[in-house]
Amino acid sequence: MITSKEQSAEWWLDMNLYQIYVRSFADSNGDGVGDIAGITQHLQYLADLGINAIWLTPFYPSPQADMGYDVADYRNVDPTYGTLDDFDAMVAKAHSLNVRVFIDIVPNHTSSQHPWFQAALKAAPGSAERNRYIFVDGRDGGKLPPNAWGGWTTTEPWTKVDTQWYLHMFSAEQPDLNWRNPEVREEFKNTLRFWMNRGVDGLRVDAPTLLIKPELTAKQAEDNLPDLFPIYAEWRKMLDEEFGPRCMIGEVFDDAETGMENFVDKAHMNQIFCFDYQEAPWQADEFKDIIDSWVTTTREHGSSSVWVSSSHDLIRQVSYLGFPDPKNKGSDIGPEDEQPDLELGTRRTRAMTLMTMWLPGAICTYYGEELGLPDHTTLTDADLQGHDMDRDGCRSPMPWASDKPNLGFSTAARAWLPQPQVYRELAVDVQQQSDTSMLSLYRALFKKRQELGLAAGDVTFIDTDTDDVIVARNGNICLAINFGDDAAPMPAGEVIAKSLPDIDVTDDLPANAAVWLYQDWAVEDDDDEDDDEDNSTDSE
Ligand code: GLC
User: Fold this and answer.
1) Rounded to an integer, what distance in angstroms lies between the CA atom of residue 144 and that of residue 351?
2) Which of 411, 459, 480, 530 has the fewest Cβ atoms within 10 angstroms?
């Protein structure tokens, strides 16, 4: 049981966070849609896996124009997902298993059904109601939008209501709030208090870079960082003073240097996600640069990386890496598109998992990643539910049981999205029976990561003969991963984990494979760094 006293400071630096896409994780009431009670039922599964924090995507009352990222009431649970009592029961159960709970806070915009926006529509230009949002007179007597800004997921971010237009960086159902208005700021602090008082441990902050808009004459809508930072600094102060160690992670797409300087130093968030890792091409030098800069820079700023490989906005790693030369991650693969080679994608993902689990810092696992789930890449137009962008491929319901309807996700006749055929053989019950499944690999690696203290370690890269390989050590554990198409020399050391069950320790390191090797560097350290052959492997 986590009590506030036991909340050790900075518990997030090495956490194993699990992203639950609430709609798709587990349906407890048979309506075809995942819910909070379904999460509660599976918390033991997550704790057994090695997860110690969960992040729930938005479960608030919402018309679901953007699957919950259009919030109509920030202090309640959508009836589709349950009740506040269900939420409290979920938090209590999570805490009893030493699992912390993150909620997703969406400050940039509300739903157009939010009472504030409804009131703004009815009120006159210049009113206090309109001043909570960004209503601006149109050009040419109101006929044209106020300026030529582009949105994030929409090409035209202005929608006309009368002589005025309102701004929405996402869909028209997601009007942007006016964060220069003190009332908006107060309202959100009270929302945070509401959830913190219910035992929430952390926040995933949605689109945090967008809140403060520049002058209307600016080229883009998203360039006003100095006025942005005080908002989060205020949140930090409130969280620290009123609640103790609570974590804020930003959905920031910056590189390590910029992200740390802005969002950790100036905005006082604890961490930002490392999206570079998720979108990197399958190349040793790219990963090396990302790892190097993120590990070093986050540490310099008293933070840590949150390594991300998959999420609800982009295609899953198994599918992405299933293209011979993956470069542009994109958000969906359709039935007409070239299809990924899942054998290749799975093999690379297993190798990448060895790398991720070996890295210092925190890890964020997207639901089903531990099963090696690919995207649903043959969804028909009739299946699609997402309105604005097609991101349904990475949101298929979790397969729990191979012999049950909807693979154990729901007892409904139909789940909200179909599951691809291949999910049957990837279901939790099937993978639990096998020592060599992705699930078993995940569980074993989380355990070793903990035992070996890798999350708190450091990375030193070792020179290699080929550019296709990363060889690096974290304490006494050496990672060797081969991104190339040819086998590479295997470094010395005792193999303690491998991405493929059939790698022979005396062999070369095969293409698209990885190993962890135990090397006793304490004995080595006085020697020449290049003298790798003599590594002692038998001490301890
Ligand atoms: C974030 C979410 C995405 C959502 C958007 C608007 O990028 O991850 O799913 O559509 O914000 O809230």
Assistant:
1) 53
2) 530
